Amino acid sequence: MNRCSWLTPLALACLCGALVPEAWAHDDHGAAALGVEVRELANSSKEWDGRILPPYPSGQPQVKVLRITIPAGVRLPLHWHPVINAAVILKGALSLELADGSRRTFGEGEALVEVVNTVHTGQALGDDPVELVVFYAGVQGSPTTVLTTTAQPPR
CB–CB of 132/88 below 8 Å? Predict the structure, then answer.
């Protein structure tokens, strides 16, 4: 393990609130006494479709955080993510669909661990736009999202 290889998983976990146990966050630092509330939104080693997350790639870790707004009714083009990422839906409802037709819907306040190296699409449901924050844990020089017209990402 190189000296920075722990940074990517640690950064993603901290950003998503998944690594910090309540006892550590509250008791050891007195956060509860200050009125700080911690609510775990996601804590998983699996993607939203149930598959196990792939190992983190080697290289210089790079964390990217994006706030994305998808207009009401818009369907995203087919795409895939070569890096592990997780999202929190701030507003609206987002339906995610795999190339095989399986789908799952996430609503306001829900978190998801996105599929990696799997072609999929998403659609903003209802009359309101979807607002979400996405945390990408990749390596420097690697894209976070790749548009495609095929059902499978290149191997």
Answer: yes
CB 150 within 8 A of CB 79: no
The total number of structural domains that make up the chain: 1
Structure-token pair, residue 137: 């844990």
Identify the residue with better confidence: 4 or 128: 128
Residue 12 lies in a domain: no
The reply to whether 117 falls in a domain is yes
Query: Comparing 45 with 152, which gets the higher pLDDT?
Result: 45
Residue 16 has pLDDT above 60, yes or no: no
Question: Using CA atoms, how far apart are residues 92 and 129, in angstroms rounded to an integer?
Answer: 6
Q: Has residue 116 got a pLDDT over 50?
A: yes
28 by Cβ neighbours in 10 Å (0-12 / 13-18 / 19+) ranks as: exposed
Residue 153 inside a domain? The answer is no
What is the rounded CA–CA span in Å between residue 73 and residue 54? 31
92: domain range?
44-147
